[in-house]
Amino acid sequence: MKYLTPFFLTICLFFSCTVDNSQNRVPNSANDVSPLLIGSSVPDIALSDPENRSVNLNEISSQQTLYVFYRGGWCPFCSAELSDLYEIENELQSKGVEIVAISPDTPEYLKNSLEDTEPGYTLLSDSSMEAAKAFGVAFRVDEETVQSLKEGGMDIEERSGQTHHILPVPAAFLTNSEGKIVFQYVNPDYRQRVDKSVIMAAVNSMLEE
Question: Is there a contact between 103 and 168 (Cβ–Cβ < 8 Å)?
Fold first, then answer.
């Protein structure tokens, strides 16, 4: 049996490396993302708030949380979604649910966005896209789209301070007090966002369990 041990160790190491690489792989299409499933735990990722202070998602996940991934303040569909969240944030907070909105925008851009409005929810910068990758909602934008956005005044390199050309598929993950995902909505069509009534239904269902 002792002669088989190195063989099995090699197999385990190979499998481990394969899994790690697949988790870090970023698809080239929004249709090919593999989001975290219900029952998964919130990844141990540190992001930055508008003041460039480090915020760990694991610490946030000790309470019921709605994580919302959006493309950035430049996206009109994202702005509409955040406005909808603003309308239900008081109700969510009364039920013990905090809102965390995550985008590739740098802390500076997040801070500038707060000049027009002061939402009660938390905005976090995922400029490196590590959180989007960990949640399985990151995809790489092709060069033609990058240039088209730039010509339209939406420079994703400037907004993120990065040249990775990665954006998140708009998504929402609701987690319970144990940091487990109990609801998720991920739609490759960036024009479609989860309705606030669906979010409230998911929250009420979680609280009834």
Answer: yes
Q: Is the Cα torsion angle 120, 57, 37, 35 positive or negative in sign?
A: positive
Q: Output the pTM of the full model.
A: 0.86
* DSSP of 111-142: HHHTTT---SSEEEE-TT-HHHHHHT-EEEPP
Q: How confident is the model at residue 19 (pLDDT cuts 50, 70, 90)?
A: very low
Sort 37 into a burial class: Cβ within 10 Å, 0-12 / 13-18 / 19+. Answer: exposed
CATH of 36-208 given 3.40.50.11190, 3.30.70.100, 3.40.50.720, 3.40.30.10:
3.40.30.10
Tell which residue, 21, 27, 10, 11, has the closest CA to residue 132. Answer: 27
Would you list the DSSP string of 53-110? -EEEHHHHTTS-EEEEE-S-TT-HHHHHHHHHHHHHHHHHHHTT-EEEEEES--HHHH
Report in angstroms the alpha-carbon separations of 143 from 31, 32, 49, 133. 17, 18, 29, 20
